[in-house]
Design a protein that fits this description.
Elements: E1 3-6, E2 10-14, E3 18-19, E4 29-30, E5 38-42, H1 45-49, H2 81-98, H3 109-120, H4 145-159, H5 166-183, H6 185-209, H7 217-232, H8 241-252, H9 260-277, E6 285-290, E7 304-309, E8 314-316, E9 323-326, E10 331-333, E11 345-346, E12 349-350, E13 356-359, E14 373-381, E15 391-395
Parallel strand pairs: 3-4
Antiparallel strand pairs: 1-2, 2-5, 6-7, 7-8, 9-10, 9-14, 10-11, 12-13, 13-15, 14-15
Helix pairs in contact: 2-4, 2-7, 4-5, 5-6, 6-7
């Protein structure tokens, strides 16, 4: 038996049949044999124009984009990962943990409360680059895309192992690994095919872990995400996160109800003119200098700075913004920032291929140049209540 998924990029012929469920076409009732095999027939731009897959097109309707010269209706219209993965697949997975019917992995109310507490307890460790602090699962229906992204890219392996079955966790972590690879230009260059195999594994096993009825267009779309990254670069290069953030800024430019478009255009023009006369900022930039009377470590001198700004992130001495990854892979914690010789105190640790680290044992204070900072990272204590001094470190990807 075959299930045919009509998609803008492929015809997916799936060796599966559905058990005792009423579906609209193209689903075919039958018996689920415990596996899914995807045999995609890739669709080209010419196939799209000629409407080879009639099920994908509305009758007597043609996209106005076709007449625009230079647009490839397949390659130039990638799957957008904010909606496909964060608001689509991630929301479906977390919702399945809370809903008892039609899913195989619902968690009890007690377990969900413990999981929510674990998520909310991460709030003090989330850096300022994250638009929102973690919220309870009870507010899941009001979660924004950035909250799903924070779970997916950074804290899955820290929060979920104790609450999910082995099969469910291994399935979930495969999506985590794949999306972290696709979110980084470096990791994507090195491990693109590995990410593709992870997505195939994730999609093929989705009905085994959750339910057959949970299969959706978004889940199938993961199979094409690697091809889009190969053509267009890391996921954030063609995601709508930056446009969603900009929308709030545009709203603030409107001072009255009359002629909102003209107001926005004028405010943007004024900002652009101001930027032309503004001096070019040479990063990194030291901020908020102050002097302290107490003795400084050898090689450091006043003034002491509260923060240092890079192009895509800011480092401070606060615990939610003081962890960095150096060019040589060392995990470092910033304790003091000084102008000339002052450099951070470091926390070395082993690194992993997708920027997830386990760090422990503070080293002696060292002086290293700011130019060696590769990226900012989250650093969260693993189990401080039981005397574990190890830290979970996740290199930040969405700001790099």
């Amino acid at each position: 038996m075959l299930m045919v998924c009509h998609c803008q990029k492929a015809l997916a012929l799936t060796s599966i049949a559905l058990e005792d469920h009423d579906f609209i076409p193209p689903f075919i009732p039958g018996v689920f044999h415990g596996t899914i095999k995807h045999e995609n027939v890739e669709i080209t731009h010419e196939d799209f124009i000629n409407k080879t897959d009639e099920q994908h097109h509305l009758p007597n309707k043609t996209s106005p984009l076709i007449v625009i010269s230079g647009i490839n209706m397949v390659d130039h219209l990638p799957f957008e990962y904010m909606h496909l993965v964060c608001l689509g697949v991630m929301r479906k997975i977390l919702y399945s943990l809370m809903k008892s019917s039609n899913y195989k992995v619902p968690l009890s109310a007690t377990i969900l409360d413990q999981l929510s507490v674990r998520i909310v307890n991460l709030r003090p460790y989330i850096p300022s680059e994250f638009g929102r602090k973690p919220r309870s699962l009870q507010e899941l229906l009001r979660w924004k895309a950035t909250e799903f992204r924070q779970i997916l890219l950074y804290t899955i392996s820290l929060v979920f192992p104790k609450f999910l079955s082995c099969d469910a966790y291994n399935h979930f972590i495969s999506l985590h690994y794949a999306i972290r690879i696709l979110s980084s230009r470096l990791y994507a260059c090195q491990q693109l095919q590995y990410a593709k195999s992870l997505h195939k594994y994730f999609v093929s096993n989705f009905p085994l872990v959750y339910s057959l009825t949970s299969l959706s267009y978004n889940v199938h779309g993961l199979l094409h995400l690697v091809d889009d990254v190969e053509l267009h670069g890391p996921l954030d290069k063609f995601s709508t996160f930056k446009f969603e953030n900009k929308l709030q800024q545009l709203k603030k430019l409107i001072w009255k109800h009359d002629k909102p478009l003209q107001q926005i255009a004028r405010r943007i023009f004024e900002k652009e003119m101001a930027m032309k006369v503004k001096e070019v900022c040479n990063y990194p930039v030291l901020k908020k200098a102050s002097c302290i009377n107490s003795a400084l470590p050898l090689g450091m001198e006043n003034p002491i700075y509260n923060s240092i700004e890079f192009k895509h992130f800011k480092i401070t001495q606060k615990r939610q913004s003081n962890c960095v990854v150096m060019e040589n892979g060392d995990i470092c914690v910033v304790q003091l920032i000084a102008n000339k010789f002052g450099k951070p105190h470091f926390l070395p640790g082993s690194s992993q291929v997708i920027g997830i680290h386990c760090a422990k044992d503070f080293s002696q204070a060292q002086l290293l140049p700011v130019s060696e900072i590769k990226n900012k990272a989250l650093m969260i204590p693993l189990d401080p209540h039981n005397g574990d001094e190890s830290f979970y470190v996740a290199e930040m990807l969405h700001s790099s």
